[in-house]
Specification:
The chain is α+β, with helices and mostly antiparallel strands. The chain has two domains: 165 residues, Ribosomal Protein S5, domain 2 (2-Layer Sandwich), CATH 3.30.230; 123 residues, GHMP kinase, C-terminal domain (Alpha-Beta Plaits), CATH 3.30.70.890. Helices cover 34% and strands 29% of the residues. It has ten helices and twelve strands. The strands form two sheets. Strands 1, 2, 3, 4, 5, 6, 8 and 12 form an eight-stranded mixed beta sheet that branches. Strands 9-10-7-11 form a four-stranded antiparallel beta sheet, with helices on both faces. Strand 1 and strand 2 form a beta hairpin. Helix 1 packs parallel to helix 2, helix 2 runs antiparallel to helix 3 and helix 6 runs antiparallel to helix 7. It is globular. It binds adenosine-5'-triphosphate (ATP). Adenosine-5'-triphosphate binds next to helix 1 and helix 2.
Amino acid sequence: MTVTVRVPAKVNVQLAVGPARPDGFHDLANVFLAVGLYDEVTATPADALRITCTGPDADKVPLDRTNLAARAAELLAARYGRSPDVHLHIAKDIPVAGGMAGGSADGAAALVACDALWGTGASREELLEICAELGSDVPFSLVGGAALGTGRGERLTPLEVGGTFHWVFAAADGGLSTPAVYAEFDRLTPHAGPPEADPVLLAALRTGDPFALAGALSNDLQPAAVSLRPSLKDTLAAGTKAGALAALVSGSGPTTAFLAEGAEAARGIAEALMASGTCRSARTATSPAPGATIVSGSATSF
Ligand code: ATP
């Protein structure tokens, strides 16, 4: 018996960052949009917790208990008084350490897969609670679509999206550490104001108009990511030159995101980015995408 769960990556169409709080976290107004680049996590009964991973970035994924998929299995098992004996296989397609919440996605997927495999029958609220414990971006990976995250980003309000958006994502060589990018943000922005969602951006999502969304995209972490990785400027410029309506760093980077007018324009921008030599790879994807979804297998208890 196995259960496979498919889970999307995300892009932040707005990431407004407030000052550092006493606990070290930052208050955010974080508008998440799930995009159709997916990891798949397959859960199979085993004698002990074990993680395996395949995919282009597999060598960068930790296979020990620091993997968010392993932590998700452990938290769910502890809550239901059982041992987390499961083999979790991650088929990884989301760039690692790319600011697209790939680890968070795997945590949410593992949680849904183990819940189904073990027949724990946890409620949606319980699963969301465990997600918030795993990390700020994990609850959104569970729900998908589009949502405004406040607090550390984990308090979610679903948002309406009125159409399909076409994107190109350019992966960079090497990752950027999210804590390092926040530290650089603190250095560059000693007097950050309170973060607020932009009503113009929320309206653009509702209408599904890519031109309106392009004018409203913003990421307060972008100057920090570019400061740590100046070559991102060249990638952003190459995508803009190729006709992107807007270009921005995805989350804490170093993946860059380009909004296109439609599917054909997106393909052209991806080709131009590949030819520019300013990125490792460039791929098209659409949004919104559904959250963690069981794609095969069935629930059982044993
Ligand atoms: P975010 O957008 O949430 O800031 P990210 O996309 O930049 O995250 P991840 O791909 O989630 O970054 O990886 C960040 C680090 O987390 C990795 O360098 C790795 O050490 C660790 N990690 C833990 N679990 C996983 C996982 N399942 N997949 C990838 N990385 C993981």
